[in-house]
Queue: 4 jobs
Job 1
Amino acid sequence: MSQGIHRAPPPDPSAYGNCFGCAPGNMKGMRLQFRHDEAGRILTDVQLGVDYESFPGIIHGGIVATVLDEVMARASLHVHRMPSMTVGLRLRYVQAMRTGQRYVATAEVQSRDGELVRLQGRLETESNGLVAAADATFILLDAERMDTARHGLPAETLESFKRYMQRVTQ
């Protein structure tokens, strides 16, 4: 989907919460940083240590899923200019992610049908190729949807979302 190819990135949402994947202040998190390329894809470099292992030398598969979920969420945000939430995620693990090695995760929007966004993501290493691939469906979280959900969400979540949306729409 080429809508996001030449767009500047939206404001970074990591300052508005304690996201395990991207918040720079979450010392237990991965603190992923994102960039976009000329084709409109979102990328992040990943190199994880022993805190993220399942077995010695191997990063836990749930962490691999989190990396891909994060980069796909950022791709949706980049193209559609509003936060989104995962409603479906399918992963194919090809090989183990190794502790301490450098990887690149990429994602791009494939399509949008109303409030649903379909995305693809990949986690790769330069030397050994594909580690995991993901297909996901996200739902866009516009202000109206968040207002409807306000009864089930903590006040601090709603306030954080409100501050972020004000910044995005400036």
Job 2
Amino acid sequence: MSWFDPYRSKLITAREAVQCVQSGMRVYIHPGCAEPEALVEALMNRAGYVKNVEIVHLLTLGTSPYCLPEMSESFRHNALFVGGNVREAVQQGRADYTPIFLGEVEALFESGEMSIDVAFIQVSPPDSHGYCSFGVGVDTTLTAAKYAHHVVAQVNAQMPRTYGDSFIHVSELDAIVEVSRPLCEIKENIITDLHKSIGAHVSSLIEDGSVLQLGIGGIPDAVLPNLVDRRDLGVHTELLSDNAIPLIEAGVINGQRKNFKPRKIILGFVLGTKKLFDFVDENPVFEFHPSAYTNDPFRISQNERMVPSTPQLRWTSRAKSARSRSEPVFTVASADNSTSSGARRARNGASRSLPCLPLRRATRFRASCLV
């Protein structure tokens, strides 16, 4: 227990922890369901003491108060993924957007091209050896913490412990804030008839023994229910949602035929509800890795029968009409591009790496049909 005393010495309040953030710094925030909300809330109370602090993150599920107009002198957000909570700020020019593939984000941290002054992360309590788990999200955060000059950890008693390359030792943490609060959860997606129609087409391309890249949204959620009669499916994906649980429990997803990491679900993070968080907690089936690993086309290509099962592009905003230019359109290139590239190189995967776009075409009678 040699780590215990150093751990205790680093325990401070959230208010004290954010004192390390000074004007002109760049702050990274753990994204997704792992967002350290207590640290973000404390940082907002520091607004009057700092200027021009750049806040960098992928999709977060909190309220992003640093994007409010009244915070513009203190904070400016640089979005690596334009989520719903920051979209308006990006469109109105109060925040920036750096277009990049998910698997390439960590290279910015490693090279120093986007150096991180302070990383706000959320982890599980340490085990008997002093290792904390990144829990529901390894994604780009393990690498951000590795290269950040200062790491502030929100240690949450409600964060699950997950396996894989998903640990950080307490010796690598500069400040620790203990909390016990529910994680951020994502709302259930509404599945439309369009999604169901596309889902039926996509699922028809998935054969027994295929390795899937899953996703979040109406189309991925519409694909999975159509796969209950498949056998021995595997998963190598950037993310996983609640809708994969029934297929795992039914034994449809078991990875028995996977040649690369057999019987393991390879993923970078999960987006879902407490049901999913409890499901991945200390579950050895799940093997978490950084996004640079899960989204590497070379590693993806090592999976035979690799099948991308989500749309090629995720639309994060839409124009008011096809002819209107009054509202900007932002598209986010997700992991699907990397997966498609890897699938085309995979043995028995090329014919199935078909991009699926949720597009409608209106006839001259204004009837809508699937393209």
Job 3
Amino acid sequence: MRNLILATLLFASTYQTAVGEQTGDWKYTTENNRATITKYTALGKAVTIPGSLNGNTVTSIGNMAFYECTNLSSVTIPCGVTVISHNAFTKCTNLTSITIPNSVTSIEDHAFSNCTSLTNIIVDGSNPNYSSDASGVLFNKNKSTIFQYPSGKRGPYTIPISVTIIGSGAFTECTKLSSITIPNGVTSIGDWAFSTCTSLTNITIPQSVTSIGHRAFPGCTSLSSMTIPTRVKSIQERTFASCTSLTNVTIPLSVTSIESGAFSGCTKLTSINIPDSVTLTGDAAFTGCTSLTKIIIPNSVTKIGENAFYDCSSLNTITIPGSVKSVGNLAFFGCYNLTNAVILSGVKSIGERAFEGCISLSSVTIPDSMNSIGVSAFQNCTSLTSITIPPGTSIQGEMPKHIKVIRK
């Protein structure tokens, strides 16, 4: 009987921790007499987080605990809190200021993202891990890493010369930031660092930078030009996606890969020079670059990813070098001004629907190295009347009836 009671109590404790508890306006979970706030349920404006809940010391503000608390204008965090979790205060659009006590040891990425009225982050001077400057910007203790620029601040900003790392999401959704000065000495720009900084027209990245994270600049709709530093090796996933004013990009020889979606939706980009060092153009790398009229793919590239040039509707000619072994599915789908495609010896496969919808395409050169042409590769290529195929090339599915297949 005693064992049954103990088992029942253990089950109840586990269940209670798993589903959480609520005291007043606060939902929370507990472990070892420590509480993590999981949700603030009221509509308060000036809120003081309790130091304890039902005898449990509050030590953590959980993921999305104050998410979209749009009435919240100020919050007091008690000494004793050690962790402010990922997205803890995201979209608190009326929050203007927040003070970090000396007990906080961890502030996770995007904790204050899209707080569009936030102008001041104040860190207790005795905090051993974090600090802030006179502008209300959040750093690590020695100001070598910038963690959060308040989203509500407007005008220009100069990053201190002590900074070597721009943290993940540091300037995300800073739509009022008009210009940024990055000092020589910065080596890393983190993921999402300048995402949706819609007022930035120009950014000079110093040559000291060796890495730029994925989605570092997407949605910077006023950004018109970009020069990649000569020590950067990869343009990461969606780094410049939807930079709709971007007309000029300089890519150095240090870059070996252009990853998925890197320039997707850059609708004003008219041309781009891919250096001979690049071996990969990833999936959807240039999707929706509707003003792109010319691109030279160098002999170093070994793969053109799926959707790589999807809907590049101004592209009029393309030469695929023999170094490329495969052309991905839908690679040139919807390039309706493309008139000529030269595929050089060495290319082994063309993916499914690779040139579908290229209604102006009238000439395609297929090399003897070609092993296979995917299903619907030339579907709706209404200007293409014939195509010459090597004897060893297999055609998946059927070629459109209006295209005459000539075997060598």
Job 4
Amino acid sequence: MPVFVTDDVIAEALGYHTACSLPNSDGTETLRTFIYTSWLHPALVDPIIADVSTSNHENLEWFNDPFINNVVPDWRYPPESDPRAVCSGNTFLEVSDPQGNGPTLDDFPTVVVPIHGVDCHLQDLVMLPWFADEVPSSAQNGWYDFPATTDLHVPAAYCK
């Protein structure tokens, strides 16, 4: 799978993953996936989009829904206690979007992981039990998110 990474450049989005159909010489088609992501220097941007944050976001979304066809109910941006929480308009299994996009993203700071003396900023991601409305969560220790593990305590609230 190709992964395209830009250095301190933003295109139409900070990043995305997608699938496209490519023709084969025998007249059939093959479905291929790829990721586009930005590497943004931490001194230039907010930590929520710095360094590996966007790559972390897109890689985990691709891993959970490579063909963008895993449908879930339309969910609200967490937490419900934030008056800015609104319907996402997103019915795909996008594990990074609930806490990495939308009006409440500043409620979820990145998780800083030092690697060889360099601070890497990881977005906190929701896990399947959050989308699946599991109470309690079947994930390890009853978690709904990772790697922070303490940001979410209840599953998704759904839009009507």
